[in-house]
Write a structure and sequence with these properties.
Length: about 350
Amino acid sequence: MLLKSIVSLACIAAAAAQATKGKIFDHIFIIYLENTDFVKAAQDANLTSFADQAVLLDNYYGVTHPSEPNYIAVSGGDYFGLNDDNFHSIPANYTTVVDLLEKKNLTWKAYQEDLPSVCYQGFESDALYFRKHNPFIIYDSVALNTTRCSNIVPATQLATDLSNNDLPNYSFYTPNMLNDGHNTTVAYASAWLKSFLPPLLENKSFINNTLVVLTFDESDTYDIENRVYTLLLGDVIADLKNTTDSTFYTHYSILSTVEANWDLGNLGRQDTNSTVNNVFEVVAKAAGITNNNITMENAPLLNGTEPGFLAPAPTTSTSAPAGSQPTGSAASFVSVPKVFAAVAALAGAFAAMI
Ligand SMILES: *[C@@H]1O[C@H](CO)[C@@H](O)[C@H](O)[C@H]1NC(C)=O
Ligand SMILES: *[C@@H]1O[C@H](CO)[C@@H](O)[C@H](O)[C@H]1NC(C)=O
Ligand SMILES: *[C@@H]1O[C@H](CO)[C@@H](O)[C@H](O)[C@H]1NC(C)=O
Ligand SMILES: *[C@@H]1O[C@H](CO)[C@@H](O)[C@H](O)[C@H]1NC(C)=O
Ligand SMILES: *[C@@H]1O[C@H](CO)[C@@H](O)[C@H](O)[C@H]1NC(C)=O
Ligand SMILES: *[C@@H]1O[C@H](CO)[C@@H](O)[C@H](O)[C@H]1NC(C)=O
Ligand SMILES: *[C@@H]1O[C@H](CO)[C@@H](O)[C@H](O)[C@H]1NC(C)=O
Ligand SMILES: *[C@@H]1O[C@H](CO)[C@@H](O)[C@H](O)[C@H]1NC(C)=O
Ligand SMILES: *[C@@H]1O[C@H](CO)[C@@H](O)[C@H](O)[C@H]1NC(C)=O
Ligand SMILES: *[C@@H]1O[C@H](CO)[C@@H](O)[C@H](O)[C@H]1NC(C)=O
Ligand SMILES: *[C@@H]1O[C@H](CO)[C@@H](O)[C@H](O)[C@H]1NC(C)=O
Ligand SMILES: *[C@@H]1O[C@H](CO)[C@@H](O)[C@H](O)[C@H]1NC(C)=O
């Protein structure tokens, strides 16, 4: 009787563990490079040399300009109207993919090259690490929570994690300002990739039901479509090597793919917007999801700024301040009273205290 209960308990435990297994992958490793138009990336020999071991996503888009909103979009499912690269903290009542992962006991880390210390909150370090390229530190729901923030680590931690056979289920990797091409060129970034990526792709503690997503945060040219060169790599796409998937995808697709893979539910933001949330076909098929057929004619332009609470205060000046970036059409520009932002910040601080 006792034995039988123990056996059935063990079965229940095994079933529960299995229920949370990923449909396609057990690990996802996301790498963002910087500021390169699709066409330019597609001409880079070192970058395209990865394509024969990959699925090329040739209809994949950043969601706005400049950099920072494209980073907070992948972790939080929106960029809340942000159209600058300044120091921002999103109030603690804003959830991210971390909330969804934790509910299923899935582990995560943000590996940041040249981050000076775990959970470093500063704007930059050594001119190599920049907060604007860290998609988790900007959310107070992560940054002000000691347990969560301990998962924002210097990239050197990756080797340690691999030697302990402990790759997190969800990883976001940010190369430094040189390696990601930001201050350099796509040729510099791809030369770096040529030394960084191949050893990982052959490492058994890295490649173990792993999907690698290699993409760029945004195109370099603002007044064209925001298309970026994107590859899916890893053992889970082995049967699809050297193929092209031309489904319309965006950075929100990474989030919705993660959600579909592990049945995480959603954040109720752009990850539920059927115009921009197509799930990578390899996972969509396994999850029984039919993607939206977004064609050239009905594809949204993703080079402007949608409204949101992080939109800048309205300016009465007709000329843009020096050094400012294009910000989309005047119609898409919604001003939010500063008092709202102050209330939100206070609420965030309060939520973090309780
Ligand atoms: C999460 O990662 C761990 C460590 O690699 C692995 O053992 C586990 O199977 C993964 N879980 C899921 C549900 O993918
Ligand atoms: C997560 O882990 C806790 C503690 O081990 C367990 O009670 C819970 O059932 C797990 N949740 C899932 C979704 O596996
Ligand atoms: C990279 O460029 C930024 C400006 O975007 C600059 O502040 C920083 O010093 C540069 N870093 C290096 C290592 O060149
Ligand atoms: C802080 O993070 C831990 C685990 O990562 C989580 O269990 C807890 O709910 C979080 N606290 C708050 C206030 O969000
Ligand atoms: C994987 O990488 C880690 C860290 O570099 C290393 O310790 C480990 O030996 C590697 N494993 C294999 C099978 O190459
Ligand atoms: C490709 O990368 C290697 C280093 O990994 C470098 O030596 C080579 O010059 C690069 N090729 C091009 C065309 O940039
Ligand atoms: C691969 O992951 C499974 C659990 O998902 C684990 O049991 C196995 O040890 C891992 N293999 C290697 C080589 O790390
Ligand atoms: C977005 O791209 C379209 C053409 O693809 C262009 O007409 C429009 O001006 C661009 N918008 C911005 C804000 O640059
Ligand atoms: C990849 O596909 C192209 C044709 O699309 C072919 O020329 C090339 O040989 C293939 N490479 C490999 C490694 O299979
Ligand atoms: C869905 O995304 C499109 C493209 O960005 C946008 O125009 C539309 O407003 C979004 N819908 C909602 C409900 O957010
Ligand atoms: C998507 O729609 C276009 C017409 O709008 C059609 O030509 C094409 O075959 C459709 N593709 C799929 C995969 O349904
Ligand atoms: C966060 O709190 C602010 C202030 O109370 C509120 O206006 C906002 O709607 C909240 N946002 C979310 C996502 O709960």
